[in-house]
Fold:
Amino acid sequence: MLYYFLTPYIENFNFLNLFNYLTFRAGGALFTAFFISLLLGPRFIKKLKSVQKKGQPIRLDGPKSHLVNKAGTPTMGGMLILISLFISILFWSDLTSNIVWLIFSITILFGLIGALDDYSKLKNNNPDGFKASYRLIVEFLICFLFVFLFNKIVNPDLVNIVFIPFTKGFFIDLGNFYYIFAAIVIVGSANAVNLTDGLDGLAIGPIMITTLSFAFIAYFTGNLIYSEYLKIPYVSDTGELVIICASLIGAGLGFLWFNAPPAMVFMGDTGSLSIGGTIGAIAVATKHEIILSLIGGIFVLEALSVFAQIISFKLTGKRIFRMAPIHHHFEQKGWSEATIVIRFWIISIILALLGLASLKLR
Structure:
């Protein structure tokens, strides 16, 4: 909004030229989202506590300590992230950008799915929520529509193309199978983040690290000079996604203020599905779908640990891990919650650096 209304006056006020710089607007977006989270947080959490008398339902088959330490903590804190994110994007992004609204539509729609799931859990006092198969069907349908609309605005040479990391422009044309591939990336990202959100501060750290990495990727893919230098695909207008990434980082920092151990509020499916879906959609929009599996490796590890546990138990009757997702396995081994969170953050940073290195190692 500021970009739209102020840039026409640049000739009269030279200092307004700052709004033409993505880095300036990204900084403004980050701090705006952060301070909105801090300002709204206490009142928002108080309201959630008054509405959610029992707080988020705790898994009975989860760690026994959670039944004591986390009981009564309100959920749906992701709404705080979404509110901060929306206001910041509204202020600092170019609202004429189709790709901004396309990505943010994923954020909102996946957030609505998560909110309905959270509401179902609270209403029925059951940690299971909606049937997973129904939720996945809706998520895939949304993603198919997203890919269809994205293919309408992207350069025709990039439609249904998947680029291979660590190569100089090598790609695979999936044709219509790209719809399935891209949908798996977005839905997989959303649900992997959802599985990671099990300890205070565990998910939001890798979320911010992954988002920061894709802020760089969005900046480079949206800049013709940098994309040619790095031998990565140039995707017009993806530079504006830097504003979304910066806003998400700022909102995430504000949320972490209240989610740090012991958490005053949980993100809930409202936050994890919307944020995970947003990250997956940005990976698709920047044509770095495969590299997301490296940068967001923590999320992949959490999801794979659940799949491996289920498959192993169904086939052999034995469990690979003491408990899944894998962060609960380490809890059962006696690691403290803070130790697990910090070590997972460290791994996430290392994976992000390796992912960013792929931009140059070609």
Remarks:
- The beta strands are 161-163, 171-173.
- DSSP finds 15 helices and two strands in the chain.
- The longest strand covers residues 161-163.
- The mean pLDDT is 91.
